[in-house]
Amino acid sequence: MIKLIFFILSIVFFIIGFIGLMLPVIPQIPFFVIGVVFLMAGSKRFERFMKNTNIYKNHLEKYVKKSHFLSKLLEEPES
Fold this sequence. Notes:
This protein is mainly α.
């Protein structure tokens, strides 16, 4: 159920990001980034893909480790 909520939130933020591409008043980059974070939280396959890219390793990994919210959001659920 929580994966579905994360997936829906990611789609909503991607749509807002695309609207931001059309309208110069709405910033698009923050909405795309939030959409990617929610997609990573909802899909372990996409999370593995993102964590193996050089962009993530070189620029984003240190921020995810420092951020308590992002580290909790992207951590493995306990079985």
